[in-house]
Amino acid sequence: MKQDKAQGIIIAPIWPGQSWYIKLKNLSIKFLFLGLSERILEKGQKMKDKDLKFPLDNADSFLLDLLQKQEEICF
Fold this sequence. Notes:
Elements: E1 7-13, H1 19-27, E2 28-36, H2 37-40, H3 45-49, E3 58-65
Antiparallel strand pairs: 1-3, 2-3
């Protein structure tokens, strides 16, 4: 994401024990608590076909703007 200087929104589970979660939080310029995954996400056809369930975790929304200069990004 940093190499591509990406801009976007990522919705991810709140898993602070995971290294990717900490990195994602540090790369985001804003984040928003969304609530339970099953209440905010919609199942796609593959999930419906396989009768899969969402994790019983809360989710955050992360706003990324990696067009910022490298020095401005907090690591």
